[in-house]
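Morning. Coffee machine broken again, so started the prediction first thing and wrote up yesterday's gels while waiting. Chain of 365 residues, entered below exactly as on the submission form.
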Amino acid sequence: MKWQIIFAGLRARPVRTCVTILAVALQVSLILVMVGLTTGTADEIGRRVSGVGADIVFQPPDADVLLAASGASLDPGMEAIIAKVDGVKSVTPVLVRTNVKKFTMFFGIDPKTFDEVSGGLVYKKGRVFSGPDEVVIDDIFAKDKNLDVGDDLELQNHHFRVSGIVENGKGVRIFMELRKAQELNSTPSTVSIFFVKLKDSSDINGAIAKMKAEIPGYEIRNGPEYAALMTGANIPGFDAVNQVIVFVALCIGVLVIFLSMYTTIMERTREIGILRSLGASRTFIVTLIMKEAILICLIGVLLGTVDSFGIVRVAQHFFPTMAFTISYQWMIYAAISALASGVVGSLHPSLKAASQDPVEAFAYE
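Came back before lunch.
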């Protein structure tokens, strides 16, 4: 009987019901898409660093796992010191810089040593850069910016010619000559990191311990496991951003459910009075209103989850360089957030409905 009353109430006010469901769906989509973007971006950066193929990532003291956040403070002369460590096969210096305008990072590299460490970039078109005014880009960046070999690319107020297009997945989306990157970064005698290849990759952690003993004070990380480091525990502010997103979405949900349920109480005052006069308890009225809110939230959760995947597909179609990761864990968090909004938002309206006097309710117009 109770569910019949709930469904009848929803059908009686289809516009209000649909608007409320859409608002809850917006709450869920906001959480999944925005958190998916922050998580996906971090995950993709980690995968691409691991994808370089280096066994060890050698960084400055106290360096962040986000390569671009570490700056360029390593002396290129460290390359010779690292190369002398027992078990090291090859070392390549890299300068990392972020181009905010293009929303991407680029590497300044020495092609010869970078190929020794990484196994070489896989060229789909063109060739490696042969001068300071040429760059190599990956296929996703080329698609996103509609670029081909021979086209012009502006970076840091400097014009470059695209000399080659490579398969994505090795570090970054743009590669240029190391000296040119240092010039653009105004750091002519420093680099950001060294990628290291070992003669035997079976015991990377053992090699890292040996390297730390011989060259103390530096951040030395496991290359293949680099993607696993891209978490809130290692990225400053990462968890805080996600928490703010969830909090804002939760506020939206609570306000929408509150307004919807409060309006429902005003519109159904006489109906609630009839139920009370027929012997319905206050508990019955409270659970009736809250179940209606939770049902709306459940529908909103399903719609919002489906919408999130649609939004991601559209976004990646127009912006191929954007990365999203919508995990089952965050789908559960988004659903809990929406249901919590339903409970909190409907609590006051349901208590107000339960406290109505049946006689006054009959007289309500």
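Residues 131 and 269 are 79 Å apart (CA to CA). Going to sketch it on the whiteboard this afternoon.
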